[in-house]
Design goal:
alpha/beta; homodimer; five-stranded parallel β-sheet; about 30% strand; FAD/NAD(P)-binding domain; about 300 residues
Chain lengths: ~300, ~300
């Protein structure tokens, strides 16, 4: 039986494994995709201390860091079930096999919602982005479109308006779901154009994004020439496994956590994009911070229970 | 007038400056000691992705990262006063001079309390440590002493008991201030010895720590042979400047912050060891995470106020 089982191989999971190993906890880290969502970042830029690093390189460094500890068992497997067991939890793998652990950390991440239009996959990382906070900086003086109508889209447009020459905010409805003051502030910006009641039909380019096609013309044309398309239509946190344990969700559908990143189920913790920690600000550095806090919580939990 | 003034040059302040610059906010970062408490770590080991890096090197990398942004004004000065001003806050420097900013982030850190005994300064980083979480890992199979009677000391001893061969927990009183279950758990560990009603007179060594002297003999000797001394008698968060603004403190004396790292004073944020965020788990990676969250909060605050 492990002291802690970490499910997920992104920045939160790796950091949790590093901290757990340094506490000399017997640690299992398991997941399907090494690096998690981190590997989708072509250029990171906001990992403190690394002016230039790619997502895959940063994740590879973290993975190697984890693998430098003999306290950590690193498995590549898909966890299909998590249930309570005597003295802790039992993980069940696809294709059979189980592991048991006294505590568990869900670091299962989230999936950004996709538009599902032609060109989206082709140009992912080549002009198509799902994180304005992460990537706005690479569009200084350029023209970009933001797609969406919620807080993330409007906030993303505001961030991009600080950096880019011109921002189109494309929303399929007439009104925004975002708080009105946000969209009102945006309306006053001279470099933001609202493209309302319009939907994206296709993202076009040549090696990288050069524009997009709309279903209905805007200002006389169904084409917009842009250097980047930011798709900000929400994310789906991977809460399924935690929900098998009946871990509570917050009002946005993320795992509800206390100050120690513990979920509503004692001994079950969460870190990174799947959790509602760090004010829902999903970044490499906040995921890593939550991973560290979760292990501190795990350690206290194990001590209390008589480790 | 700056958009944001960051006070403090540690991991929290540097990370905040990086995020602020990437949001293209006009940013001031100011403080006295480059690197903050980070420079006191001889070997970090738990900064994700860097198996081996010294505190000074990590802080230097973060500083260079900050300096790579033209949006950031980097000043070396001692801030002696922070007060409200029209549209924001005014910082006053020792020796004169002021700056104004629409928002402020206190990243002023904390100071670990020292015992004030002979040998303590001489062997700092050479066997004397103020952070069991950070440094326990370097004492595998060794003999160490922990000094203190509160949660940090007892938790520190528990962490060290996982790693070290032998742990002496030295406390000047008969009872612990820490929660009883913690110390009860410790009593069951075969490699932990309680040295109660004893105080450290001197830390001795030869290039590095070899032992310590007690004021009164324990088990017949006033000497303990140890490879490391962990001084865990608390920390004093540098809240003075924030208190000039009447920012509220939490029940442990740290700056009270909301989920967005905003203090009780609108527009004034806190990040890192001075704040009560991250469940009071003071680490490079949690400080950095809080710096990022604070800037996300600053950006939202500025948008609301019509940036």
């Amino acid at each position: 039986m492990f002291d802690v089982a970490i499910i997920g191989l992104g920045a939160a999971g790796y950091t949790a494994a590093i901290y757990a190993a340094r506490y000399k906890l017997s640690t299992l880290i398991v997941g399907e995709e090494e690096g998690g969502m981190g590997v989708t970042a072509a250029e990171v830029g906001n990992w403190p201390g690394d002016i230039e690093v790619s997502g895959p390189d940063l994740m590879e460094r973290m993975k190697k860091h984890v693998q430098s500890f003999k306290e950590v068992t690193h498995k590549s497997a898909r966890v299909v079930k998590v249930e309570k067991a005597a003295g802790g939890f039992r993980l069940q793998y696809e294709g059979g096999g189980t592991d048991e652990s006294r505590t568990v950390i869900f670091a299962t991440g989230s999936k950004k919602r996709q538009l599902g239009v032609a060109g989206e996959k082709e140009f992912a990382g080549k002009g198509v982005s799902y994180c304005a906070t992460c990537d706005a900086f690479f569009y200084r003086g350029k023209t970009v479109a933001v797609v969406g109508g919620g807080d993330a889209a409007v906030e993303g447009a505001a961030i991009l308006a600080q950096v880019a020459k011109q921002v189109y905010l494309i929303h399929r409805r007439k009104e925004f779901r975002a708080e009105p003051y946000w969209s009102n502030q945006l309306k006053e910006k001279t470099n933001v154009t609202f493209v309302l009641e319009r939907s994206v039909k296709e993202i076009v380019g040549d090696g990288k994004v050069t524009g997009l096609a709309l279903f209905h013309p805007f200002n006389g044309s169904d084409r917009l020439a842009v250097d980047g398309v930011f798709i900000e239509i929400g994310a789906d946190p991977a809460v399924e496994l935690a929900q098998q344990l009946k871990c509570a969700l917050d009002d946005r559908g993320y795992l509800k956590v206390g100050a120690d990143q513990q979920t509503s189920v004692p001994g079950a913790f969460a870190a990174g994009d799947v959790s509602g920690g760090s004010n829902h600000f999903a970044q490499f550095v906040t995921a890593a911070g939550e991973g560290a806090v979760a292990v501190s919580g795990v350690f206290a939990f194990l001590q209390e229970r008589g480790a």
